[in-house]
UniProtKB/TrEMBL annotation:
It comes from the Bacteria. It comes from Bradyrhizobium iriomotense. This is Lipocalin/cytosolic fatty-acid binding domain-containing protein.
Length: 51
C-alpha cells in the first residue's frame, strides 16, 4: 500500500488510493509528525511526499 503525504489548504493530507484523508496537523507543523501518524494508521505502507 502506498500513502502520499501532501500539503493542501493549510493542512497535511494523506492520499491512499483515490481517497484523500485530512490529518489534524497544520502545514506549518513538522513533516515527521505526519509520517509518524501515517505509519501508525497504515502500518507497513510506503510513505511518499508530494509537493
Amino acid at each position: 500500500m502506498n500513502v502520499v503525504i501532501q500539503k493542501l489548504n493549510g493542512l497535511w493530507h494523506l492520499i491512499v488510493g483515490s481517497c484523500q484523508i485530512r490529518t489534524p496537523f497544520l502545514d506549518t507543523q513538522d513533516r515527521e509528525l505526519v509520517v509518524t501518524y501515517a505509519r501508525r494508521v497504515y502500518p507497513g505502507a510506503k510513505i511518499f511526499q508530494r509537493d
